[in-house]
Every structure is written in structure tokens, then in C-alpha cells.
UniProtKB/TrEMBL annotation:
Disordered, as annotated region: 238-267
Protein name as it appears in the record: BRWD1 protein
Source organism superkingdom: Eukaryota
Biased composition (Polar residues): 238-261
Species, as recorded: Smutsornis africanus
SUPFAM superfamilies: WD40 repeat-like (SSF50978)
Gene of this entry: Brwd1_0
């Protein structure tokens, strides 16, 4: 097998460079001399995640499609900590990305099965306040394109960024209680009646009809006593300017050059 580098990362103080190779090895190099210092053995599949600790120059995190997550001491070539992402009944989950927290006390990973894995020191009680399964009800909604080739939500015919905040649902599409809906940015101060989604019956790919969130009970910002969104106004103004510019270009193109004065140019 021809060796290929799949990922590369410098440590915190740039003294070392770590490369991941497609033979499942990690190699630690001296960044000044180019000398190979260590071969780090442990992964059983290709590694596409190398994450540097934010302030400890000895520590490097690696994760890969084999479900393994390693914390390495790259100065000694050892692995102080190891976690295998085993999912009951489904084998292991490939780890796609990892990031350290700014204080270096925690790191979070995402895997191929839609899980967010949070590791760190201390008590996990704050994380018990949220449900195990959290999805937005719009996560898998189909999109379409309009005549300008802009993306729209198929059901509401709205641009996705202009839609009201989505609802939190479980993996089967069932909405969570209102106390969890307030976790969604934009719904923190909504009245309870505005946190109850509209439910309807939707056919799954297996032909089974299930009750799911199909729409949102929303009110205007004026009715909620909220200030209009400055960002939304800017987006609408930019869209209006773009539409006016497009209309002017089409008008000038259709009129064509007159009296041999050459091709009309945009102002």
C-alpha cells in the first residue's frame, strides 16, 4: 500500500508536527530538524481528526473511523487515555470531528450515528437537564429552488434563514415539552402557547403513518412585543437591491445598444 498522509497538525508551541498516515500510524516529527521521534500505534482505521490541546503542548487528541479516541502525550509517545465509541446493537460509531473547550478541561466529538460525545472533568449533572435525543423538526425537510435559483423550504415556500425558530423533537419526530423548547435560540421568552407545535400525520418510508411536527404556531414579532430583527431587515434590503439590480440589467440587455454607441454598461 502506498503511504498517504490523511491529516496533519502542529502542537500548541509548534515544536512538534503530528501526521496521520493511511497505514493507521501517527508519526511525531521534530518541526525544526524533521527527525521522526515516535510512531503512535493504536488506531485500526484511517484517522481524519487531530486536535491540539489549547495550552498543554504535550497533549494531542486523535480520532478516526475505527471509533477510537486517543489522548496522546506526544513528547513521550504514550497514550494516557483511550475511549472506544461502541454503540449497543450497532457496532462502533466512526468519529468524524473533535474539539477541545477553550479551557482544555473538556472535549466534544461527533460520530456517524448522530451522537454528540462530551468528555471532561467534574460532574455531568448539568447535562442531565436536556433530553437524550434532540433534533430540529426541520432537519430533514425537503428544499426547492425558485426561479432565481434561491433555496426555499418546500412546505412554507420561505428562505430557511427567514423561517421561525424550529422545534426540538426526538428521533421519531415527537416534540419535547415546552421547557425544552425554550433552549432553542429565539424561543427563550415565548409564551407557553407559542411553544406548542402543530402536529400532523406523516407517512414514513416504510409506509407507516406517524404523528409528527408539520408546522409551527407562530405570531408576529409585534404581537410578542419583540423588537424587529435588524439582521432580517438587512437581508430583506439586500434581496430588494439584488432584485432591482437584476431587473435593471435585464431591461438594459433587452434594449440593446442604440445608435451604435456600444454595449450598455452597468452604472
Amino acid at each position: 500500500m502506498k503511504p498517504k498522509v490523511t491529516m496533519i497538525a502542529w502542537n500548541q508551541n509548534d515544536n512538534y508536527v503530528v501526521t496521520a498516515v493511511n497505514n493507521h500510524l501517527l508519526k511525531v516529527w521534530n518541526s525544526c530538524t524533521g527527525q521522526l521521534l515516535h510512531d503512535l500505534v493504536g488506531h485500526a482505521d484511517e484517522v481524519f481528526v487531530l486536535e491540539t490541546h489549547p495550552f498543554d503542548s504535550r497533549i494531542m487528541l486523535s480520532a478516526g473511523h475505527d471509533g477510537n479516541i486517543f489522548i496522546w502525550d506526544i513528547t513521550k509517545g504514550t497514550k494516557p487515555k483511550h475511549y472506544f465509541n461502541m454503540i449497543e446493537g450497532q457496532g462502533h460509531g466512526a468519529v468524524f470531528d473533535c474539539k477541545f473547550s477553550p479551557d482544555g478541561q473538556h472535549f466534544a466529538c461527533t460520530d456517524s450515528h448522530g451522537h454528540l460525545l462530551i468528555f471532561g472533568f467534574g460532574c455531568s449533572r448539568p447535562y442531565e437537564k436536556i433530553p437524550d435525543q434532540m433534533f430540529f423538526h426541520t432537519d430533514y425537510r425537503p428544499l426547492i429552488r425558485d426561479s432565481n435559483n434561491y433555496v426555499l423550504d418546500e412546505q412554507t415556500q420561505q428562505a430557511p434563514h427567514l423561517m421561525p425558530p424550529p422545534f426540538l423533537v426526538d428521533v421519531d419526530g415527537n416534540p419535547h415539552p415546552t421547557k425544552y423548547q425554550r433552549l432553542v435560540p429565539g424561543r427563550e421568552n415565548c409564551a407557553d402557547e407559542h411553544l406548542i407545535p402543530q402536529l400532523g400525520y406523516v407517512a414514513t418510508s416504510d409506509g407507516e403513518v406517524v404523528e409528527q411536527v408539520i408546522g409551527q404556531q407562530t405570531v408576529d414579532q409585534d404581537d410578542q412585543g419583540l423588537e424587529p430583527s435588524i439582521l432580517d431587515d438587512m437581508i430583506r434590503q439586500l434581496q430588494l437591491q439584488q432584485d432591482q439590480r437584476t431587473g435593471a440589467d435585464q431591461e438594459s440587455a433587452s434594449s440593446g445598444p442604440q445608435n451604435g454607441e456600444g454595449t450598455p454598461r452597468r452604472g
